[in-house]
Amino acid sequence: MTQHAFQTEVTQLLQLMIHSLYSEREIFLRELISNASDACDKLRFLSLTEPQLSAGDSDYRIEIAVDKGAKTLVIRDNGVGLTEAEAIEHLGTIAKSGTKAFLGQLGEDQKKNAQLIGQFGVGFYAAFMVADKVVVESRSARVGSDQAVRWESAGDGSFATEKIERAARGTQVTLHLKDDADEFLDGWKVRGLVKKWSDYVCYPIRMAKEDGKELEQVNAGQPLWTKAKDAIKDEEYTAFYRSACKQWDEPATRIHASVEGRLSYTTLLFVPSEKPFDLFERERRGVSLYVKRVFIMDDCKHLLPEWLRFVKGVVDSDDLPLNVSREILQQQATVEQLRKQITKRVIDHLLKLAQSTDEADKAAWAKIDAAFGGVIREGVVTDHDNKDRVARLARWRSTWTEAEAGRATTGLEDYIRRCPESQKEIVFVTAPNLAAAKANPAIEGFVKAGREVLFFCDPVDEWVAQHLTEFDGRKLVDAAKGAGDLLDAEAKKALEAKAKELEPFLGFAKETLGDVGEVRLSGRLADSPACLVADEHGISAQMEQLMRRMGQSVPEQKRILELNPSHPLVQRISALHADSGRRGEVADALHLLKDQATLAAGGTVSDGAATAKRLQGLLAKALG
Fold it and tell me: For residues 268 and 224, what is the distance between their CA atoms, to the nearest angstrom?
């Protein structure tokens, strides 16, 4: 045999490959199967113009054999094979890709048809993670049986080659396994790894049955996503969704698309119809990454933004480079381009469903909105690139949906279509739950004036309110903030006159309620005697509570107590204020008004014992 030295850097890189780059040793089998598949791909392509290369054996296949006695694992294929010169060049040089050189010889049109990943690139050296000696026997399809080559190395900085006779074309890689790699001599273990990593390699991967006499295919073969859509039944899609995505429900919708161009990829994505138990495990993603049908990783968080974590399925790319390790593919610039395109495709699909008049689409969107509406609204805050389009997807309950039977939620575009032409803002109210939002006194005037109010009653909506300040040129206004400008000029003038008349009473109320920033008459109330609102630039009571739960410091917030001057209770209390001997009763009544306004908005009173004592006194007096 002829001895050769590896390329200068090979020894150092090989040690890095074996000890650092791969977190799972089992990756070696995926790499060797990929190389075998690539060799078959290359020969199949060459045979289009040179049919003699595959004459007599065009049934491309990969075989795996385990020999426990010899402690060897063998992977063989009947692909294009190697000459001695190619073995020295490709297997002796780290980062040398036969596929890259092969593609360089092809015209641009032919490149689209060459289904290649990379013949004997760096992945080959992953074999040394589990083997202390690797032997490669190969015969090129272009040479005779007496021109085959044997290549072997212990991964110690050198390798040896010699010419041998080999009747069949193709390549056989024999791994002499290390003592700590005995697990890969277990046939069931190897079968499991084939299913996990290489199930969708398009060539049959065969292993001996238990009797050792016959070979059987252990991989699924052609993946569902590579088939024509019109050739796939709904039941097949559902079966794939349940098995590959590990779901139990029916998918609400699916996105099956093949894209060719600057980026070539196929997606088969599903949106579940029910909320999965791990929806709020933010590191979890439901999308698996494949490269040319070779499994790379589950939960690939770099393919979709966090708010789309409920999407399940696969992305199969033709363009991701397989350089040092398939485990660091997500760091490639191509992945960022993929992410943008796939995200756009998913949002487009969801928008189409949300805006469709088709009954099936409407039913699908209703399921998605019910299960994932809150998560979708996260995208308004976290996905800056798609903020406007995600806002068009966002849905809420509102005063209109509560009045319309069968209307679950509404979006901002529909809100604008319904609102009066004179209305220049979108009104919402924040609350801890739907009941509190509907009962909040601050919305009464808006409802009376014919303005729809959106109910922001999910914790994420507090963050949405901070980030979504405008939509299609209309400002979003919190019904419980600012002055609640609902009055015309004449009504404003009358309110100002009433405030001047009650100035002593309002001053007493402010002095009595030391924890409020201001007491004023309200133009936003209709039926309730009082409400608590925030300054236009202050934070809402719900946001304040959220921040405290998260351990964040909250700047001092003093709410504004607004009183309804036309309410009999407010009129009675203000009249009692004129009797200096009854100021104690007025003070208790003001405290109770503030507390009931807090409770009506879904908040909690700061001193429950004092509130209870005042109520007891009031009840005792009322009951004589």
Answer: 9
- CA proximity to 243, closest of 199, 209, 193: 199
Are 141 and 81 a contacting pair, CB within 8 Å?
A: yes
Beta-carbon contacts of residue 607 (< 8 Å; ≥ 6 apart)? none
Average pLDDT over residues 62-70: 95
Please say whether the beta carbons of 440 and 429 come within 8 A. yes
Q: Rounded to an integer, what distance in angstroms lies between the CA atom of residue 543 and that of residue 458? A: 11
Encoding tokens for residue 407?
Answer: 């209307």
Decide: 486 and 446 in contact? Cβ < 8 Å.
Answer: yes
**What are the C-alpha distances in Å from 477 to residues 39, 420, 423, 452?**
63, 16, 12, 12
Backbone angles phi, psi at 45, to 5 degrees: -70, -45
**Residue 264: what residue type?**
S
All domains of the chain in start order, with CATH: 2-217 (3.30.565.10), 224-355 (3.30.230.80), 489-622 (1.20.120.790)
pTM here is 0.77
Least Cα distance to 268 among 311, 314, 319, 299 occurs for: 314
User: How far apart, in whole angstroms, are the C-alpha atoms of residue 146 and residue 542?
Assistant: 81
At 321, the pLDDT band (50, 70, 90 cuts) reads: low
The band of 95, judged by pLDDT with boundaries at 50, 70 and 90, is very low
